[in-house]
Amino acid sequence: MSITRRSARRSVRILGVASASAAVVLGLSSSALACTIRDFKAEAKCDGEKGVIVVTDSDAARTPATISVFLKSNGGVETQVGKEEVKGSAQGTPVSFPEDWKPNATYRVHIKAANLVDEDIQPDLLAPSTACKTESSTPTPTAKPKPKPKPSKSAPAESATPTPSASASSSAPAAAPSNAPSPAAGNSNLAETGAGSNTGLIAGIAGALVVVGGGAVFFGMRRRGTRGNG
Q: How many domains does the chain have?
C-alpha cells in the first residue's frame, strides 16, 4: 500500500503543529522558571530585642543571586548594611542581615542574578514605626529598700540633781562633834560632860562624906591614943 502525496502532507502538518506546540510549552516553562525581581521580598523584623532585615529568594530555578542592602539617609547618602550570596528555592530561602534599624528608616535592596536581574526591589523597604527594644523592655534599676532603723537602747535619763545612794550615805563621814552637851538618856543621873543639873548635889554629898570620914578617922586615932596613955 503506497502513501499518497496528500497523506504525506497531512503527516508533515501534524508533526509541525506538534513541534510548535512543544516549543511553546518549553518556552513558557523556561520563562516561568526564569529568575525575576518578583522572586525576592524584603522585610524588617525583630529577633528578640535586636533588629534584622530578612530578604527571601523564592526563585525555583535556584539561580545564584547577590543581595545588597543599603540604608538611605535624608541627605541622599547611603550606607551599606550587608551583602550576601543566595540560591533560592520554591519554598523560599531567607537571608538575614543584622541591623538595629530605627523606626520608619528606609532601606534600598538591590538584586543581581546573572544576566536576568539587576535592579532594586520596589518600593524601598520601610522599617516599622515601633523599634524592637522599647523603653518598657529595658530593665529599670530598682531602688534598694532603706534599712529600718534599729531601736536604740537609750540610757535611763539622769536626774538633774543626783540623789546620794545608800552606800554613799553610809560611807559619808560622821558629823564633827559639837561642844554642846548631849541630852541625858532616860532617867540616868550621870553627867556626860560634867555640866549636869545634879553635879553640885553630888559634889556636896561627896565633900560631906569626906569630912565625916576624916572626922571618924580623927576620933578613932584619939581614942587609941587615950587608951595607950591610960
A: 1
Whether 23 is in a domain gets the answer no
Residue 209 counted as domain residue: no
What pLDDT score was predicted for residue 152?
61
Domain range holding 73? 37-126
Distance CA 85, CA 87 (A): 7
3-state secondary structure of 211: helix
* Cell 563621814 belongs to residue: 173
Q: In what order do the strands lie in the sheet with 50-57?
A: 40-47, 50-57, 93-98
CATH classification of the domain holding 54? 2.60.40.10
Q: Do the domain assignments include residue 91?
A: yes
Where does 81-187 have alpha helices with state H? 166-171
Q: What is the DSSP letter of 134?
A: -
Mean pLDDT value of segment 16-36: 56
The reply to whether 28 falls in a domain is no
Q: Which residues of 88-99 are buried (b: 16+ CB within 10 A; e: fewer)?
A: beeeebebebeb
pTM above 0.70, yes or no: no
The whole-angstrom separation of Cα 34 and Cα 53 is 25
Short-list 149, 27, 154, 42, CA closest to 94: 42
Contact 107, 121 (CB under 8 A): no
| Cell numbers 560632860: residue | 193
**Between vectors from CA 129 to CA 123 and to CA 131, what angle results, nearest 5°?**
120
Instruction: State mean pLDDT over 162-191.
Output: 48
